[in-house]
Design goal:
By secondary structure, the protein is α+β, with helices and mostly antiparallel strands. It is about 30% helix and about 35% strand. It starts with 5 loop residues before the first strand and ends in a 7-residue tail after the last strand.
């Protein structure tokens, strides 16, 4: 399955995040998946319904920026490559777009190197989402970097109780 989208840089990520994303893109796909396709999905199964769920997550995800500070009960992760055009320079690059899928099937997306790095750490330490005993409570926030720059941060929410 290959999906390519064009996303405007200023809508999703800072330049610092894009620099991190360039390096993290290959690492994410390599560390989270055994084969070399451009879509990673933790959704298990090869049925038509499973594949439709992956495509639905890719096409229907809401921007994570609209849900900052909320607890997301992470059940699955989808990542795929997107083509980004920088509004200022016109430079085109391929970046990873990460989709977080909660316990209710709602999907949230971002192009963010920090999110990629945090999820890679979570998967490397805790294991693939399908091996977790229950969804993992996480919270995404926007943090301040140097100057006017910001980035997304992902933290595990300890002591959270599912609703």
């Amino acid at each position: 399955m290959t999906t390519e989208n064009t996303i405007r840089v200023n809508e999703l990520a800072t330049r610092d995040e894009l620099e991190i994303s360039r390096e993290a893109s290959q690492e994410l796909i390599a560390s989270m998946q055994e084969n070399s396709t451009s879509v990673y999905s933790s959704i298990q199964g090869d049925s038509f319904e499973d594949r439709v769920a992956v495509v639905a997550a890719i096409t229907d995800a809401e921007p994570i920026a609209d849900h900052l500070g909320q607890t997301i009960w992470l059940k699955d992760i989808v990542a795929h490559s997107v083509t980004i055009t920088d509004d200022e320079t016109g430079e085109v690059s391929v970046q990873p777009r990460t989709i977080l899928i909660d316990k209710d099937g709602k999907a949230y997306s971002a192009v963010s190197g920090v999110i990629v790095n945090r999820l890679t750490t979570i998967v490397n330490v805790i294991g693939q989402p399908h091996t977790w005993p229950s969804p993992l409570p996480i919270r995404v926030t926007r943090e301040k970097a140097s100057g006017a720059r910001t980035f997304f941060e992902v933290r595990i929410v300890t002591g959270a109780k599912p609703k």
